[in-house]
Amino acid sequence: MVSAVQALDPLLKEGRDLTHRQGFLPQPVVRFTGRRDARGRLLDGFLTSFVNVSHVSPISGVEEYAEAFDCWLSVLSRIGLHARHVTLSGDLRVWHRREVSGVTLRFHHAGVGLGDIVLLWNANNPRRMAVDLGSGLERLAWARTRQPWPDLVHGPLTDHADTDVLDAVRTATLLLGHGIAPASRGAGAAVRRLTQSVPPGTALFGLSSLCRAYHRYWETFAPIKLGWPQVTTLLEREVSRGHVAVPRARIETRQGADAERQDPALSPVRG
Questions:
Q1: Residue 72 lies in a domain
Q2: How many domains does the chain have?
Q3: For residues 113 and 139, is the Cβ–Cβ distance under 8 A?
Q4: 223 occurs within a structural domain
Q5: Cα 27 to chain centroid, rounded
Q6: Statement to judge: residues 219 and 156 lie in one domain
C-alpha cells in the first residue's frame, strides 16, 4: 500500500508530471510519536494507530493550495465543525528533505488540533507542486462529538481494561492482520514492542473480544489479510511468551508535517 504522500513521489522526487494516486485517500497508519504524560501514558487525542484522511493532488500554483483548504473548510462545516471556530498555526518557513521542499500549516477547531495542510514542491523544479491535506479521523470525531477520548476510541471496552493496553491491542491487531509477524527487527519489532504493554496473564483469559472489535474497525477502511481468529491466536501466543523489552525502533518523520493528524507524518500499514 502506497501512503498518501508517497503517491506524489514521481512528481515531487523525480520532477515528472505523474502521480501514483491522487484525491481522497483514507488510510490506517501506525505512529509511535504520540504525546505522553510523565508516566509514559498517551495523552487524550493521541494513539499509536489511527486513520489518516488525506487529500493529495498536484497543483499549478499557491492559489490552489489556498483553494484546497477552502474546500476542506466546507467539508468540516458539513459535519458540524464550522469555519468560525477554525484557526491556523505555523509559519511560512520552508523545510527541506532531500529532493522535496515544503511549507506546513496546522489547523485546529475550537482548540482541538485536527491536521495539517502542506505545500510541497520538487526542490530542483519548483513548478512541480502538490498539496497534502490531512486529518486524523478519530480526532475529527472527537472535535465533532466532544466525547471523552477513551470512550470515543474504545467504546465500552474502556470499562474493562487499561486504555494503554487497549491501544496496544488495537494497533497490534492492525499490524498482525496485515501479515506483519512479531520479530526482533524491522516492522515486526513494532508488534513485539506493543505486546510489552499487555500483561502476560491477560492472554490466559483471552483477547478475542478485543481483537474482534478492533479487526472490525480496521476492516472498514482496508481489506485485512488475516481474519480476527488468526490475529487473536498470534497475539495471545506473543503476549504469553513474555518477551524482554526490545529497543525502540528509530522513527523517521517528514520535517514540518508531523503534528495534528494525530500527529502524522505518514507511516502506512503495508498490505
A1: yes
A2: 2
A3: yes
A4: yes
A5: 8
A6: yes
Torsion of CA 250, 252, 253, 255, to 10 degrees: 110
Are 78 and 197 found together in one domain? no
Measured distance CA(149)–CA(146) in Å, rounded: 8
Q: Is 111 exposed, middle or buried (0-12, 13-18, 19+ CB in 10 A)?
A: exposed
Q: Whole domain around residue 157: which residue ranges?
A: 149-241
Domain-ending residue, one of 145, 168, 201: 145
Tell me: do 219 and 232 sit in the same domain.
yes
CA angle 212, 217, 222 (to 5 degrees): 115
pLDDT in tens, the chain (271 residues): 445 667 788 788 877 876 777 778 889 999 999 999 999 999 999 999 999 998 899 999 999 999 999 999 999 999 999 999 999 999 899 999 998 999 999 999 999 999 999 999 999 899 999 999 999 999 999 999 999 999 999 999 999 899 999 999 999 999 999 999 999 898 899 999 999 889 877 777 789 999 999 999 999 998 999 999 999 999 999 998 864 444 444 434 444 444 445 544 334 554 4
